[in-house]
Amino acid sequence: MTRCVQVAVVALLVATPVWAQVTVDLGDVRQKSSLTADDRSRIQAYAQQAVQTMLTNTDPDRRGMVAAREHILEEVQSAENRTEAYRQAFAEETLAVLAKTAEKAVSQPARVNFVMILARLQVIEAAPLLQSALADPYPASQYWAAKGLAMLAPKIVARVVPRLEGEIADSIEKMLQTRQPTMVLIQLFDALGKFDHERAHDVLAGGVVQVAKGLDASDPVVRRMVSEAIRSLERAYSREVRPDAKKNLLLAYAALCAHIMPPIDVSPVPAGYARLMAELNASLEQITGEDVGFESSDPLALQKLALLEWVERLARTKRIPNRPEMPAAVEQAVKDGQSGGGATTGKAANATTPADKAGT
Questions:
Q1: What is the DSSP letter of 318?
Q2: Is the backbone of residue 308 left (phi > 0), alpha (psi -120 to 50) or beta?
Q3: Which residues, in sequence order, are CB contacts of 244 under 8 Å at separation 6+?
Q4: How many CB atoms lie within 10 A of CB 334?
Q5: Fewest Cβ atoms nearer than 10 Å: which of 52, 240, 291, 360?
Q6: CA angle, 253 as apex, 247 and 258 as ends, to 5°?
Q7: What's the burial of 52, exposed, middle or buried (CB within 10 Å: 0-12/13-18/19+)?
Q8: Residue from 276, 294, 273 nearest 285 by CA
Q9: Nearest CA-CA partner of 280 in 315, 306, 312
Q10: What does DSSP assign to residue 238?
Q11: Torsion angle, CA of 14/15/20/23, rounded to 10 degrees?
Q12: Which tens digits make up the pLDDT trace of 18-72?
């Protein structure tokens, strides 16, 4: 499924533009710093023609569809001979047109291009349409809906719209109830990590725990997803004040520690494995101020044991609500370690906490 998303996105981005010229002339409007109602009407007429061209194009290679999309976005994103007031007005009027034509974007190419425009308009008012697009049947449009919300998140936070943050978190939670392409998960975790709302933190924690099960870190896209999840967890933990919510965020960390497995039959071992485990350990050190003796120069098996020490320490000190479910191989390793005096390496056994360093 991930490959399908990547292929669809790339194909839509690299098609050669062939533009069916829109008849509305916006030359003088583009350079105005104050727009009249008539100016906006002209912009809307332009947007209507361009969107109609995009939705009805039948070129076998979709060149006309892509060209129409890119001309719309050029009006919004290019500062060349365009004022900020004009670009803002164009984005608003285009959004109004898209909202009226959403039901006409039914084919996969049309729908994906439709959602790409929504995402790249960067207008907060596009959030409800992007939320709806999360439920699309096409992975590529789901990807752009999630990416659009991730790109909008800082603007939503800056404008202080907590209700919208909570609604988006609820929409993402519904998405996470079913298996999602990894490329989509990257954007969903990115969006959740940028929000300050408690619902976003709760959904992030639960989502990471769920996704951690059966994690295949041999896939570089999966490693990128985990890396995004770690960054989002760290930001959420640093801003969270609810004790139970902090425990759940730590539980998500613990789940990653448990399920990231170093390869036993891959040679040479991809460098991404070691970087990912080191990144996870560094984030835990950052938020807890503690050290379990993790050394990035150690063999991967010892690095894994150090990550397991994080799980055991968090459980032992009751900073997580429960010990996370672990793969069978890890459960056996923990038992073996405990029978030898604890699930630690020699370095982990000598690791320190702030209290240890203080001599208490």
A1: T
A2: alpha
A3: 321
A4: 20
A5: 360
A6: 120
A7: middle
A8: 294
A9: 306
A10: H
A11: -20
A12: 445 556 788 889 999 999 999 999 999 999 999 998 988 877 878 888 899 999 9
Closest of 277, 280, 309 to residue 293, by C-alpha: 309
Q: How many CB atoms lie within 10 A of CB 225?
A: 26
Looking at residue 152, its pLDDT comes to 97
Residues 6+ apart with CB under 8 A from 282: none
The tokens describing 147, both together, are: 């990416």
DSSP 324: P
Helix or strand (DSSP H, E) at 131: helix 127-133
How much is the pTM? 0.85
The answer to whether residues 147 and 189 touch, using CB atoms and an 8 Å cutoff, is no
What tokens were used for 196?
Answer: 């300050």
Q: How do the domains of the chain map onto residue ranges?
A: 197-351
- Spans of the chain below 70 pLDDT: 1-23, 264-270, 330, 332-360
- The whole-angstrom distance between residue 211's C-alpha and the CA centroid of its chain comes to 13
Look at the alpha carbons of 97, 103, 104, 109 in this order and tell me if their dihedral is positive or negative. Answer: positive
pLDDT in tens, 72-104: 999 999 888 899 999 999 999 999 999 999 988
**Spatial distance between the Cα atoms of 146 and 119, rounded to a whole number of angstroms:** 8
Q: Is 36 exposed, middle or buried (0-12, 13-18, 19+ CB in 10 A)?
A: exposed
d(CA 90, CA 93): 5
Nearest to 326, CA basis, from 212, 157, 186: 212
Q: Say if residues 225 and 182 touch (Cβ distance below 8 Å).
A: yes
